[in-house]
Amino acid sequence: MSHCQSPVWSAPAGQATIAVLGMPNTGKSTFFSQLTGSHAHIGNWPGLTVDLLQADLDLEGRPAQLVDLPGIYDLRGHSEDEAVVRRFLEATPIDLVVVILNASQIDRQLRLALQVRQLGLPAVLLLNMADEARRFGVSIDTERLSSELGLPVLLVSAKYRRGLAQVRQAMVRQLGPAADPSALAGASAASDAEAQPAPIPLLEPILQAGEAELPERMALLLAAAVRLPPQWRDRLTRRLDALLLHPWLGLPLFFLAMALMFQAIYAIGVPLQEALGSLLDAFGKGVLTPLLSGLPPFLKGFLLDALYQGLGTVTAFLPVIFLFFLAMGVLEDSGYLSRAAYLMDAFMERLGLDGRSFVLSLMGFGCNVPAILGTRVMRSSGLRLLSMLIIPFSLCSARLNVFLFMAAAFFPPLQGGLVIFGLYLMSFAAAILTALLFKGRFASDEPLVLELPPYRFPTLRQMLNRAWAEVRHFWFWARRFIIFGVVAVWLLNTLPLGVAPASAASLSGRLGELLQPLLGPIGINPKLTVALLFGFIAKEIVLGGLAVIYGQADPAALGRAVATDVSWTQAVSFMLFTLLYTPCLSTVAVIRSESKRLGFTVFSVLWSLLLAWLVSFVFFQGAGLLQRLGVLG
Amino acid sequence: MRTPPRLADLVPGQSATIGSLAADTGLGQRLAALGLRPGQRVELLRRAGWGGPLHLRVGMTELMLRRRDAARVDLIALDGAA
Question: Would you state the pLDDT for residue A249?
Fold first, then answer.
């Protein structure tokens, strides 16, 4: 994750600062990434773009920094995002504000543009999703609106890249001519300060004074420049909602859609993963091994057995992760994810949570870290903490890697699929149990109001860009952990020098033996113990670690090696433990920074460890008992 | 004195005009920002099962609101299919 140290900064001399401001669900992030060409994450979920994205832009020779402010409803609002925007505007000298509204919802969103106008900031008003507004029968007289407001007003469609050239021109015109570069080159600090616009020290008094006249001003503007359709025209959304939000059919259809989505991901992803795994293994054996044959055995072992095998095993799973994020992106941008919040809210309310907690948990199936950051949209601390307590039980893509591998190694395809499905159920069960047990301690009566946007067709280009950005992000971020992890595992296995790798005499063997009294009863042998220990840092290391411990890189060969070493009940117990205990250090770190409570963070880690041990214990001992009775094979 | 009808009492397909909001500032502001202001027309599209949220339309915006919170919105002038 990229984290801004502080939302307040100022641009270097000569560079214009342009803030992008808009309500949630207006396509603001799409506009930002289309204009700057950067792969910004596009969230339909208010609050996901909490970190301020910024990008450099060249506006006909004039350098500018574009800052993507969080989506807000009201400059006077009470949410954390609204406070961030106020703080930003109060502390930063701004040359231009680009206000983005959803054109078809101009009837209520115009308010934000009027507030910016009250502040007297130079601005450009963009009415985005113009294609949708036309389809819904909303017609806007931009010239009239522009002359009434005294700022340029443009209809755009950022998703389809329509109107962006005009936006750039309008921005250049509004910025005015750049300061003389030769003057800037030798400018003193004093003239620099002079050249820059001054920030507004306090917004609230100005906004408060203007509040009373806002409704009338809005009504006059709308009457003069906007024609709304007498009847809601979005028949597609109307028809789809009649089915997808049906009181009885809605939920079964949702779960069916989820099941199909995961099926499709595995059906396409697993063969790709196997092919890539074999390819990487062949490259290692056929090219790297002969190439490195001249090196001393210790160095060769380090490069091949630790680095290449560890990284290769994890790389093979990138296609599955790509497909997962692709599917989540389609789900989010189509508008169905907001519907999931509506469908699940009644159930979540009984767990002391709400529909947003469910959507965040669902996102947690990709990665827990952004899901936990997403709890910022909640204002009640009880609700936030309870959500943070359940999100780590979401079976994230890193854990999925381990399970796909173990399931393939120990079970025929059909049974393996059932095991994975069972782990998903377990993931939900753990979250539900946790919420039920602790909802009394983290009580909340926070209201829930969410927009249900019309259904939209995501564009292929946008979805691919986004999934690619997520995979890149996952890879760059996970890589450090993986390299550190596999190297550490390899060292533990090989040291002290001269012992048989991963034998009882090695450091890892001794460590595993040391923990046997605790982990023996749940079927985790010393080798698996080492993998679990490193899995605490990140689950991406578990597979790489196993590859190093068993000395096999190709997933199929590694699977056979593990399967000859442990029984299937041990494997399932290992999977259950991996599912339930702390997902990774990053999750712990983000829980700590978001909750701002050390005690809560420790509690969250200990509870997940306890639950993991108990569930594995019950499974392993129970299965063992059934096997002795001859009921189970 | 008769208590005014509340948003939570609407039946699906019914519209009404919003009278007043008895919500605290945070919720009141959020509702207002999404278009739920006194004098605005609101239509109930559907209710989720098992005591779940309401699906509403105000102007060009559709939103979901919990029944508990909808009980804090008073209405005047109901119409439509009752």
Answer: 95
- In sequence order, the β-bridge partners of residue B62 are B57
Q: Which CATH class is domain A16-227?
A: alpha beta
| B60 touching A (Cβ < 8 Å) | yes
- Residue type at A466 in one-letter notation: R
As a whole number of angstroms, the distance between CA A284 and CA A281 comes to: 5
For residues A241 and A407, give the distance between their C-alpha atoms in angstroms, rounded to a whole number.
Answer: 38
Are B51 and A241 an interchain contact pair (Cβ–Cβ within 8 Å)? no
The two three-digit tokens of residue A517, written as one number: 């009294």
Assess contact for A14 and A179: CB atoms under 8 A.
Answer: yes
Give chain B's domains with CATH numbers: 7-79 (2.30.30.90)
| Each residue's pLDDT tens digit, A440-470 | 999 988 889 999 999 999 999 888 988 888 7
> How close does chain B come to A132, measured CA to CA in Å?
12
Residue A477, Cα to own-chain centre: how many angstroms?
Answer: 13
Phi, psi angle pair for A37, to nearest 5°: 75, 0
- CATH 3.40.50.300 domain position(s) in chain A: 16-227
A178 vs A185: CA distance, rounded Å: 13
B60 and A107 within 8 Å at the Cβ level: the answer is: yes
Distance from CA of A325 to the nearest CA of B (A): 26
Which residue's entry shows tokens 């199936």? A365
Higher pLDDT, A616 or A41: A616
| Residues in A touching B56 (Cβ below 8 Å) | none
Q: Which residues of B touch A138 (CB under 8 A)?
A: 60
Chain A residues in contact with B53 (beta carbon < 8 A): 342, 345-346, 355, 448
| Yes or no, beta carbons of B62 and A349 under 8 Å apart | no
Question: How many whole angstroms separate alpha carbon A273 and alpha carbon A283?
Answer: 15
